[in-house]
Amino acid sequence: MWRAVRIRLTAPLEAVGKSYSFSGLNGDNPTNTYGFNPADPAQWTVQGAESRDDGIDSEFYNAKGELAWRVAEGSTLKAGASYKHFENGGLQRRAQFNYDGKTGLPVVPTRVIPYSSRTPYIIADIDGTYRALGISGTVNASNAIAGADYEVREKTVAAYVQYDLNTRLGEVGVRANLGLHYYHTSLNSSGTALTGTTLTPVDITNSYDGFLPAANLAFDLNRSLVLRVSANRNVNRAALNDMRAAATINVAAFGGTISAGNPDLAPFIADSVEGSLEYYDGKRGSLAIGVFHKKMKSFITTETTPVPYNTTGFPVSLLLPGQDPAILFNYTRPVNGPGASIKGIEVAAKRDFDFLPAPFDGLGVLGNLTLADGNTDVLFSGTAVNLPLTNLSKVSTNATIYYDTGRWGVRGSAAMRSKYRWGSGGNGNIGEYIKGTTNFDASAYVNVTPQLQLTLEAINIGDEPIVQYADKDAKRMMTNTVSGRTILFGATMRF
């Protein structure tokens, strides 16, 4: 059993009747300008407080057995069966206190934000604020959020047969495995679901089964050249969080988002074909070129619909102080779409420069390049919009130069990826994206003795920002986040 519980206390402040403005909204570094000093505690009053308790419980059990029969030299028949049982449940508890516009409140302790910020500003001292307001940070079952508790139980029984072959056809070596996999999965999801404008308790059971064929072949054309070809079918069920009969609500000043699960989600089937040609120059280097294509049926995508909050069945008490109960929220849930596809090409290479005269014979390089393209339909108020697959960059590449002597070594690396889609978007925005990034890292080691090794590693040397923006055309900047550089020093002792 695995359990995660997160308890969070917040106490937002507000500065009423102040002016502010924005500039640089079309760039990566927008700026806020304030008509008052946001680092002056006298400008702020407490708006509210919230105690929140989120919990997740997970249990996983599995068993499997396998047999192998050597039919002949280079020929083996395998069979096996497995059983998996997985349970996942979640809860949310929340206690809210509204002080917006109220008078006679005690002065709450504050401090300037202790982290790096373009503009220093005041935040509440949480513990001191709760004590000054005379409220408790504890929550219990009476503070349960309607529609948030859920439980998902999944059971899968599977069996497979596989034939492995290692032989020769004339001068060509042949390695292959052919297999067939059968699965049967039953899923039960209990919680609450939105029926019309009412949250209704539900208990939904689904099941599905099927056969998954696979074939992998490798041809050793000579001592240095290998041709690989594979074709297979896979089944991919949705994440358990997507199949929960529950929803998570995030409230913002402009409205917010309700992210619901969908217990009726069906798994999607993916048919894949891959091929590669690989050249090996002993231990000194290699070069590989590969292509791939995958077609996914009933691919899981998202559906986003703006709806008035007071039609969702969630209590009005979850809204921010003063918000209209009819304010529009983005109601988002996963659905089975018509399908999706992805195709691409990969190139990978490695080479030791041992042909150079000493001391340059310790140099070497390695790198890879992936060009990929994949799309799926995303639904916005019932209208399908074709967008790139999430987390898929059209171009991804890595390159490393290294120097190794056996006693010590250094290496520097660069990793680049083009922009990719992060989410579906909402509030009229079509898609959310992350701009392309280029990261530089470096590392070094020295073997002080045969037993003691010292290491030094520098990560994100250029302090590359992560820029998130909304809408594929308007490119409205959402966040610009820098995580800083990381320097790690280590020592390893072997006994």
TrEMBL record:
Keyword Membrane in record: yes
Keywords: Cell outer membrane, Membrane, Receptor
Pfam families: TonB_dep_Rec_b-barrel (PF00593)
InterPro entries, per database record: Beta-barrel_TonB (IPR000531), Beta-barrel_TonB_sf (IPR036942)
Residue intervals of the TonB-dependent receptor-like beta-barrel domain: 24-461
Keyword Membrane tagged: yes
Location of the protein in the cell: Cell outer membrane
Source organism, top-level taxon: Bacteria
SUPFAM superfamilies on file: Porins (SSF56935)
Primary subcellular site in the record, as a coarse category: membrane
Name by which UniProt lists this protein: TonB-dependent receptor
